[in-house]
Amino acid sequence: MSKSSRIPLSSGRERPTNIAVLLREAFVALNDVVVVALAERGHAVVRPAHSAVFQYLDDTGTTVSVLAERAQMTKQAMAELVVHLERHGYVVRVPDPADRRAKLVLATEQGADVVAVAQEVAPAIEHRVEQLLGADRFAALREDLGTILRAADSSA
Amino acid sequence: MSKSSRIPLSSGRERPTNIAVLLREAFVALNDVVVVALAERGHAVVRPAHSAVFQYLDDTGTTVSVLAERAQMTKQAMAELVVHLERHGYVVRVPDPADRRAKLVLATEQGADVVAVAQEVAPAIEHRVEQLLGADRFAALREDLGTILRAADSSA
DNA sequence: CGACGTTAGACAGGTGACATGTCGAAGTCA
DNA sequence: TGACTTCGACATGTCACCTGTCTAACGTCG
């Protein structure tokens, strides 16, 4: 029933081939690989958004404000991610000896393990995709995405 | 202060060049173009997620369940989007004459205008990107994203 | 040195976009 | 007719953000 007489926006549900949709789906697909890998290694509580914490955390410790700035989100949002990770033992917050207002976020051993897994998985994904497309196409893909981003940045 | 001694995961904040991150950023950039275009035409309440509604809505009307199925989300999530759009006058829900359980979601004139804008903007974006990359590279990009998706699907 | 504007982060509260689970009413099929 | 399914409503929860307010600590400048 209601077999559809004309589908507006995109040309239907089967294969939207819309470039933006493709980009999103490809991202989700690759991202899931990391999440699954972490879950398999016992880090199920680490969710995609937390990569922003580990990604921008230096090993000398980093304040929430700096993390927020680097990840381009508000301090509150970042603080929440850090609280979650602290509750599960992935990071600790210690007072900054140089600034009594500030607290430094530091990775625990457990947190370091997450970083290790991510460091192992991320290049593996890149490599997998490179094999899939071939080195030339992969380089072109990377370049083209950069081109799109630069164009969007400058027109914004 | 705390200039960072070594950044773990990716190689820093400036240009992560990580393929997944690039994909995400490119998607967000293109998506924003649509949202901005809609906002400029007075449809500020229409947000990215709502595209799923308009995209899969046939002009003969479609039930929430069907929309949810097409958009690959739960009925509840889709129902929420529809409620929001109904509250703002973009769609109406009328009883399905053929099924007394069901209600058909229909676009109002205002909703049709959103579709019109989207129909105008989406190809424009595609075209813009195509010009940016050249036809060959654009075709390759599209193809490569498809390849990634198929590979991810089959390995999942 | 002390007042003043800035910064760090805690806390309160809110939103958007999903999820699950339960339910009654309506449809379908044996 | 009864058993099962489906439609959509409602309640509730989660995740990843947001704004706004507040206090303690900091830095500067007169």
Automatic annotation (TrEMBL), chains A, B:
Positions of the HTH marR-type domain: 16-150
GO molecular function: DNA binding; DNA-binding transcription factor activity
Cited Pfam families: MarR_2
Key words of the record: DNA-binding, Transcription, Transcription regulation
SUPFAM superfamilies: Winged helix' DNA-binding domain
InterPro entries, A to Z: HTH_MarR-typ, MarR/SlyA-like, Tscrpt_reg_MarR-type_CS, WH-like_DNA-bd_sf, WH_DNA-bd_sf
Name of the featured protein: MarR family transcriptional regulator
GO terms, biological process: response to stress
PANTHER family to which the protein is assigned, alphabetical: MARR FAMILY REGULATORY PROTEIN, TRANSCRIPTIONAL REGULATOR, MARR FAMILY
Species in which this protein is naturally found: Cellulomonas humilata
Source organism, top-level taxon: Bacteria
